Amino acid sequence: MGLFGREEGERVRNLSPLRQMVPYLMVGRNESAVYFQQQIDVDPVLAFVDAQNVGVDPEDRMTFFHVVLAAAVRVLAEREQLNRFVINRRLYARKKISLSFAVKKKFADDGRLTTVKIDFAPTDRLADVSRKVREAVSVGKGKDKTSSEKEMDLVLKIPGFLLKGAMRALAFLDGLNLIPNAMIRQDPMYASMFLANLGSIGLDAPYHHLYEYGTIPLFVVIGKIKKAPVVTADDQLAVGRVAEVRYTFDERITDGYYAARSLEIFERLIAHPQELV
Fold it and tell me: Which of 211, 266, 182, 225 lies closest to 100, judged by CA?
């Protein structure tokens, strides 16, 4: 769309002077990063998922990660300030809800890692999200290379010193909104949120950096499910199953209070997945 607009987002105007100034005070995403952690009681959601999967074909089964993704879609739909990004010190409201995550083609040390990007509608329910994710993961784990893998294979044929210059030129063009829209649509680094389900490979959740390339302002890492002390509804101490979720957030897109309230909604939706049905 050129110098004055982007296909993926619309310029946010009528901002307070402080909000306009923030991208000049903190230029990069990692310079602007805020870190947050939640420990989520997952016993209710795991019971819910098991109930949903009774009599369902293994290939069509719902997973805990599907619930997490559906909760993310709902929060981004209801809390629109989270679905923003900063390019060249300008704030944009993203027009779509796009989630990216990594897929390991096989669970082995030599298993190749690829990334998947899915566009969701604000009205998508849990069943819609689960279906779209299963379809995308099936493609990501397939023998054929994804479009992003094919693009990287092509780019990596360029000599290193030229590739370094090309990436700088790309960042410059991105700041002028001159990157081809077809490239942005396919690129998983141009999304509302990146999620990593490390619990699926038995790892705890670390804090992850944000990528300066692209437009992702939120990185969410879900750790492995483990036993821990939890407080029950009647204020009793018990042993339950929990998962730690760690967030890295670009505070240039909105203030910390708004983000924290949004993440509380995210936690509630995971704990009460029936609200997503």
Answer: 211
